[in-house]
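Per reviewer request, we include the raw input and output of the structure prediction for the construct analysed in the revised manuscript.
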Amino acid sequence: MRIAHLTATFPPYPGGAGNTAYRFARGQAARGHHVEVFTAPAAGQPPDPGRTLVHRIDPVLAIGNAPLIPSLARIAEFDVVHLHYPFIFGAELTLLGRLTRRRRRQALLVHYKNRLVGAGPRAPLFAAYERTIAPLLVRAADRVCVLSADHAASVPYLRRAGERNPGKLIEMPNGVDTDEFSPGPDANRLREHLGIPAGALLAAFVATLDRAHHFKRLDLAIDALARLDGGVAEPHLVVAGGGELLDGFQARAAAAGVGDRVHFLGPLPHAELPAVLRAADAFVLTTDPPESFGIVLIEAMACGLPTIATDYPGVRAVVDDGETGLIVPAHDPAAIGAAIARLAADPAARRRMGTAGRAKAEREWAWPRLLDRMDDAYAEAIAERRRRLA
């Protein structure tokens, strides 16, 4: 099968959407498919693409993570065009290219990661995009992969698409390498290096700390830590991730009086994340919309960590409250702090939740299973494209 992946970001850029595209593309190429990726350049050392052909095309212009690459409208001779949404400019160019019958013969699968939600002056622009381009793209698609039915139901145009054609939406969660992300000891002695006292809980927070990921809300985790008094051994937080917001978060931790308990590691290669997670006792995701799944959640669960996550569609489809972790109300540092304190005081519960989370990761999110499911989704998209052209 000839597969074209269109994605706004791709490793070495550290975002979850690009990493998912990378894992699908590399895994598909290893299975014998002809796979090409069309994306923009990114700073850093790219990972080994295996047999995948990666086109890193200089954009005419780029606004944040939105590169304008006009040649995307001319992509042809593939069985499936796999567009990873959101991709501002990429979505419009894909629709433009499909005005010609030659390119319209290619099946279109839209892999829907999250809505566009902006802050400040971007907010009305993103809202307009979500009312216009996104619904058009979903309507044009032969199949739409969604991360969970829960999240799809929270997006009006996805919900309507599913009501009109129940077979159009295919649940396709993110995946995790359960060999790379697995339980194990703190082999790098990170806790000792950071000066974490014996008996203190260490929670991990992983995110790209740039404006494109403003919704990760590290500020809530910092404020939650600051609310905890001496009732339990004072917990610590280790933060993996870099970006232009990093300095502000460091200043916030110092101002909140927890600068000595929030440890910033800066940007890390993805391959180093398992060691950070193995050093921790729990994982915290204090995100806002448009978070729709949280790849870092399943990576932490695969490492055997209990998780604390905010109550949003998609996220709550990952964490089973009380079984693999704890779900807390949004925008509530007191509730987040209480959840951290609860896990700090109950090592047995941490072990039980961590074991259950690892089992769920192996059962539902291991990559070989997801590659099988994507092959089936492509077959459905191709069949639908032939039906529509008949």
